[in-house]
Design a protein that fits this description.
This protein has 433 residues and is α+β, with helices and mostly antiparallel strands. It is built from 13 helices and 14 strands. The longest helix has 25 residues.
Length: 433
């Protein structure tokens, strides 16, 4: 039975039934009301930690809503019974539920604390939690790999349609780990293609998701850190089938070993992970046109200060959207636009107060509270155009007794147009291969 607090939250889908553009506008423009924190008998260290956790949850809600708005209405029906789902779809401007929004977020935080005793709640831990995997990342539009995997015995020509034994693994492993070494688009593209497992050749292809999520550890050796200029857009090869002419000149569906024409992805959100060093996580959003999105002053605790991609010692979560608009003349916009002077010194002092550490605190203390971030990239081959040892995510498949094929073509459903409609300058665009 659902908690009474969540029952009182108004759902945007009920407020705007069938209104995809209106829902998208609300998802991308509404933000949670600022938390009201009671100090009670907490010492400063515990109070600061509680504030960071509350701000991290709000940041996760803001980013999740922004990502969900990129998905077409018919493909984004997440499970409404989840507390996180209720906050993601909540009408945050409904004055009758302001108190319920506060209570709902506190209930979510308490649930996280109970399940993760002793662990710090951060943007990373919320966005990569099992709750978020079951709520948001399980949507087909966010799946990195296509669910159909073709396979054959090495040395033969007959391909068979197989099934992944643990489909949930595809969702969990879809977070790309990137150190900053080499080109990010090529790094992601290496997750697709032909792979050799024992004597079985497997063909994995991209699902061409609306959003690709990346953990950027920013610790590549012997390379300059990647900056906004390097990361604002990437090109990913899907390794899907495409029409080619056979020896007789007839069109046929065949696998292009080069990976096929690349798909363009642009940054939709960037997050500077700060909780691992006892600082606030900081988010930055972009529109479907790649332009920087100004956030209201109430987000100052989890947005509000200027930082840049590629700063030594920083870690990031990057969220890329499949581009639906042509590149802007002169390239995608700016990494950020300087905060208007009207915010003034008062707000800068507020930020400093929130992120301030206790006097005499040592860096070694923060190192023991790191996020459970991955430290090793997914297993991938060096050349995706040929059979290689090592699968993209060590997933196991079952080869059924099924009709065989001479090409690794898919018998699954056709390619989907996952993308949603955007308000304002951002037009709707398909993303068919």
């Amino acid at each position: 039975m659902e908690h009474p607090t969540f029952e009182k939250l108004r759902d945007l889908r009920e407020k705007y039934p069938g209104g995809e553009l209106a829902q998208n506008y609300a998802l991308t423009r509404q933000i949670p009301r600022r938390f009201r924190m009671g100090t009670g008998r907490l010492n400063k260290g515990d109070y600061d930690k509680m504030c960071r956790e509350a701000f991290a949850l709000d940041a996760a809600i803001v980013v999740a809503r922004h990502l969900l708005a990129a998905v077409a209405d018919r493909y984004r029906q997440i499970k409404s019974g989840s507390p996180l789902a209720r906050m993601i779809w909540a009408d945050l401007e409904d004055t009758d539920s302001f108190q319920q929004q506060q209570s709902a977020r506190m209930a979510i935080l308490e649930s996280f604390r109970e399940k993760r005793k002793g662990e710090q709640i951060s943007f990373y831990s919320v966005m990569e939690s099992q709750e978020m995997l079951d709520t948001l990342w399980c949507l087909p539009a966010f799946q990195l790999w296509h669910p159909t995997v073709m396979a054959k015995k090495e040395g033969t020509k007959k391909w068979e349609k197989t099934e992944v034994e643990d489909p949930a693994l595809l969702t969990r492993k879809a977070l790309i780990n990137y150190s900053g070494a080499g080109d990010l688009g090529a790094h992601i593209s290496d997750s697709f293609g032909m792979f050799l497992d024992g004597n079985i050749v497997q063909h994995w292809k991209s699902n061409e998701p609306v959003v690709i999520r990346v953990f950027h550890s920013n610790n590549a050796q012997a390379e300059e850190p990647k900056t906004w200029k390097d990361l604002r857009e990437i090109w990913v090869k899907s390794h899907r089938l495409r029409d080619v002419e056979d020896e007789t000149g007839r069109a046929t569906r065949r696998y292009d070993k080069t990976g096929g024409p690349p798909k363009r992805y642009i940054l939709l959100a960037t997050v500077r992970l700060g909780a691992w060093k006892e600082e606030n996580d900081r988010v930055r959003l972009y529109g479907a046109d790649g332009e920087y999105v100004h956030l209201p002053k109430d987000t100052i605790n989890y947005a509000g200060i200027e930082w840049t991609l590629g700063t030594v010692g920083d870690r990031y979560l990057l969220y890329y959207r499949l581009a639906t608009l042509p590149p802007a003349v002169g390239g995608s916009g700016s990494e950020f636009v300087v905060r208007p002077p009207a915010l003034g010194k008062k707000h800068a002092m507020m930020v400093a107060a929130v992120t301030m550490k206790s006097r005499g605190q040592e860096q070694s203390e923060t190192d023991r509270r790191r996020d459970p971030v991955p430290t090793r990239p997914i297993s991938r081959p060096s050349d995706p155009s040929t059979s290689n040892v090592g699968l993209p995510l060590a997933a196991r498949i079952t080869m059924p007794q099924a009709r065989s094929h001479t090409n690794p073509r898919s018998e699954s459903q056709g390619e989907q147009d996952w993308g949603g409609r955007s308000h304002g300058r951002n037009r709707r665009g398909g993303h068919r291969g």
